[in-house]
Fold this protein.
Amino acid sequence: MLITITVADHFHLVMPGWSPVALWSVAVITGLLFFAALLAHELAHSVLAKARGLRVRAITLFALGGVSQIESEASDAKSEFWIAFVGPLTSLVIGVICLGIARLTGWAPGSEPYTPVPAVLLWLGYINIALAAFNMIPGYPLDGGRVLRAVTWWITGNADRSTRIAAQVGQLVALLFIISGLIQFFSGKGFGALWIAFIGWFLLDASRSSYIHVELMSGLRDRRVADIMERDCGTVESHLSLEDFVDEYMLRSGRRCFVVIQNNYLVGLITPHEVKQVPRDQWPQTSVQSVMRPLRDLKVVTPDTPAVQALELMTREDINQLPVVSHGHLEGVFSRGQVLRFLQTHSELHGH
Ligand SMILES: [Zn+2]
């Protein structure tokens, strides 16, 4: 809607003679074509990532652009370079093709077209070229930042260090955006300047979180679930009532997650979330077993699962803990809290 309104506003300015119906239908079509172009940009990233053996989970389109959710990182600098570069390249090619067809359908460079087809093509042409240019700004995690990361990776041979460098350049670029946006706004350049500051803020946030992500991943590299998991986790018998469970186990220990066992075998998991589904007055006659998340619905890991992989699984499934199971027996619980504590100790001991 935002894009359609922006486009309608633009066409209203350049072509005042159009009827409202013509104006809005052209604006809607242009908005849809713009999203198709964004999708093509993201598909280019995804297709190349898949060709290089990476898994692509989803593509999300939103007002500021799109994001391809590629699950794992490229294993070499060359793949990283092409996966990042192909997106802006696609936008550039689309932009140039749009301008070319606009030229063929009667648009003369330097003038404004008066008919819908070249007008739409001209707008799409410029916006796609602008999109390619914006994405090539060397601020990680923008495509340009990924290209920068791939190039430094190729030169230094160190993936972690190049991500740190790219993320720091990203923060610098973001600060420049914010400062120049604010200066322009206060010298009376209007709300367009605030947009620049806003994009800078968005970039700053994104590059900071990718920096943290790298620090996190380098702390967890070569670690297995068994190095981090909590071994003596809270266990509760399946036949217990919710009332006894809450009073005697959950409140007394302060733990939030308990594994449910039956004859020494793991049968499920229970957290405050499951307890809250049951009204308070029914707690005495409801058993833990009847509300727990049963084992067959749980994602589990083994002690040998790499810690990074377990963390990715938790993020993907939006859960806070994973039972660690080996040959049907519970070995421990791997949780976000454990990972945080582990990383804290790790950074205290290694001093960064
Ligand atoms: Zn991209």
The longest helix spans residues 20-51. The chain is about 60% helix and 10% strand.
